[in-house]
Amino acid sequence: MSEQSIHTSVPAELAPPGKVGRLSRLMHRSERARGYGLIAPALTFMLCAILLPFAILVVMSFWTATGFDFDTSFSLENYKQALERPIYAALLERSLWMSGIATVAAVVLCYPMAYFVAFHVHRHKMFWIILMTLPFWTSYLLRVFAWKVVLGYEGVINSFLISVGLIEEPLEVLLYSQSAVIITLAHAWAAFAILPMYVSLEKIDRSLLEAATDLGDGPVMRFLRVTLPLSLPGVISASLLIFIPTTGDYITPALLGGPDGAMIGNLIQKMFGPINNWPMGATLSILLMLCISVICVLFILLTLFVRRRIS
Amino acid sequence: MTEDAYISIRNVDKYFGKFQAVDDVTIDIGQGEFFSLLGSSGCGKTTLLRMLAGFENPTHGEIYIDGQPMSDVPPHHRPVNMVFQNYAIFPHLNVRDNIAYGLRKHKLPKAKRYEMVDEMLDLIKLPDYGDRRANELSGGQRQRIALARALILRPKVLLLDEPLGALDKQLREQMQLELRQLQRTVGITFVFVTHDQEEALTLSDRIAVMSEGRVLQLDTPSGLYERPHSRQVASFIGTMNFFEASVKGVQGEKVDISVRGLGDIAARTTGQSLAEGEKVQVAVRPEKFVLTADQPGTPSSSVPGIVETSAYLGERSHFFIRLEGLDQTVAVSAQNSAGTQAFGDGSKPVWLSWTEDSLVLLPPE
Q1: Mean pLDDT, to the nearest integer, of B34-49?
Q2: Which of A118-132, B223-237, B338-352 has the lowest mean pLDDT?
Q3: For the domain bounded by B239-362, which CATH number is listed?
Q4: C or N: which end of chain A has fewer Cβ atoms within 10 Å?
Q5: A77-86, A133-142, B266-275, B279-288 — which is least confidently predicted?
Q6: For B88, which residue in chain A has the nearest alpha carbon?
Q7: C-alpha span between A264 and A90 (Å, rounded)
């Protein structure tokens, strides 16, 4: 092949080296520029869809409702009311309590499942994970209704208990109660508990477990001193992933809670809906968010402290 | 079981499903010995080590440590500790707590425990490292900490699974020396798994060469190097030249053999009984050949050849010599001196000579 033909075989659109555009040169030089470039779409979306509404919410929480209209002058009246009137604090406390129990239940029940798949399933792990997420292939609403069928007055549990003769009359406490909401929340969010815990368990190097055994730990001590501390990130993220959204949930308490099982989310929804007191709704949302933030920070600090203590 | 055996591996088989990882291995290891299991990957050496640690159980056979059968003893109750290939340093603990990990059972006050850890840190030459976390350590440091974590428990046996494999060459050689020194200081029995024959030769009192789950030969380093029992062992450890040969006559230890490329020569058996006409292999280490420009005075143990290629390695040179009637070249390693430079150009024939002792007779392949 002659030198001439080599030259002509280079495609014309390939720019000769050294003549690179300014943008690509910037991208190439600065890792930070590349990073920002990558998160730009998500960042833009977050700004528009989260920060902006949040800012509106904050501003609105300092308004007050007057009849059908809003007084847009700055006022702390809503916050004052929210702290003074016991109904708000009671509902908030109940919400945190209920979703706290649901979170603990989901994490405690899902940890063994995640552990089982991570350590004892050697083939077709994907299949098992898909199996565990199977309930989540139906809509949230359907799952809540399914629980209604299970827990209802003439539902699965009651008819079973009657047919085996344990009870005469159907139990009324099953449905429209706090426990109904807690059961449903714990089940409805289980996938969010299993997956992060599975990932952090799966990541644990098996030789660390062998090393712990080799250094004299039996199965229980090994679990407490190595497996659990190393899977704590998964436990923490599972807890937060469940606790944060369930505290503000309003579908489940609306459908299964009855008067006893109502949560703060129901009230917020009513503020924005039938009551038409948007500023109060905004105030309650922000108070809820603050509570959740404080609890999450305390929770993370606590787990880190516990982790240091047990290991 | 022999009297002084500290670890005794008796007829141990290990199957994983249908795959046999360890095949009827019997080994006795003495107290305070530095014992190596040497072989390429998949030869069963790590499986054997893991059976000593208790992470696997033999399918057949029994392992005794200090006279006690180990079958029913779970790993956390065995008097052995292990240094893992990847060191298995606990990432959530600092160096001090890593080393103190196994002391929990000893129910010592915290101050006493940390005192022992500080002693260990001095021993591995990493004082003041107690507060570092695992991810702040280099490979060599992790290796020492893994060692300290095991040694602080004063095990009767320390098992090491290729602990130097992840280190670069210089650090490796330094750690080899330190390891050997440490072993002499603490006087613990070391069972060391490696695929690096040089490492095994440097460190060990005795070596078991393994292949496909079997022990090919169990010997001292010099025994393995000088008197290999098979071609596999001979070629696994160092470089070896092999020649096909047949036996011409036998007189006690002395045999006359006809060797392809070397001619009719005299050799000595190393215990095996040979019959006339039997096929054998002759193995000769590259450094056992002597190269001279002129024919030496012993025509019966020398042949002429042509240097085909040569490699200068500073202290030594390697020559690859073509002999008449031989397909492959013969590797010769010679100390460099004023005269050896002249062999390299291949223009003149050189003379290859040897002594009877340097010939090893092996069974045919």
Answers
A1: 93
A2: B338-352
A3: 2.40.50.140
A4: N
A5: B266-275
A6: A208
A7: 9
The answer, for A81 touching chain B at a CB cutoff of 8 Å, is: no
The distance of A114 to chain B (nearest Cα, Å) reads 21
- Does the CB of B76 have a partner CB in chain A at under 8 Å? yes
* Residues of chain B with C-beta less than 8 angstroms from the C-beta of A213: 54-55, 74-76
B81 Cβ under 8 Å from any chain A Cβ: yes
In what helix (H) or strand (E) does residue A101 lie, and over which residues does it extend? helix A86-120
**In angstroms, rounded to a whole number, what is the distance separating the alpha carbons of residues B340 and B345?**
10
Q: How far is B86 from chain A (nearest CA, A)?
A: 8
For domain A80-310, give the fold.
MetI-like fold (1.10.3720)
A45: tokens are: 């979306």
**What CATH topology corresponds to B5-235?**
Rossmann fold (3.40.50)
User: Quick one: DSSP state of residue B168?
Assistant: -
pLDDT at B327: 84
- Nearest-CB residue to A205 (from B75, B88, B153): B88
Q: Give the one of A214, A229, A307 whose C-beta lies nearest to B75's C-beta.
A: A214
Q: Start-end ranges of CATH 3.40.50.300 in chain B?
A: 5-235
End-to-end CA distance of chain B: 33
* pLDDT, mean of residues B205-222: 94
Tell me which of A3-7, A92-96, B47-51 is least confident: A3-7
Which residue ranges make up each domain of chain A?
14-61, 80-310
Q: Check if B101 contacts A (Cβ < 8 Å).
A: yes
pLDDT of residue B207: 95
Q: Within an 8 Å CB–CB cutoff, is residue A229 touching chain B?
A: yes
Cα separation of B349 and B336, whole Å? 18
Six-digit token string for A14: 């390939």
Using 50, 70 and 90 to split pLDDT, how confident is the model at B364? confident
**Which residue in chain A is spatially nearest to B90 when comparing CA positions?**
A208
- Which residues make beta-bridge pairs with B15? B20
Taking the C-alpha atoms of residue B51 and residue B47, their distance in angstroms, rounded to an integer, is 6
Whether B149 has its CB under 8 Å from any CB of chain A: the answer is yes
Of chain A, the percentage scoring pLDDT greater than 70 comes to 93
Q: Is B79 on the interface with A (CB under 8 A)?
A: no
Q: Look at residue B352 and give its three-state secondary structure.
A: strand
Q: Is the pLDDT assigned to residue B41 strictly greater than 60?
A: yes
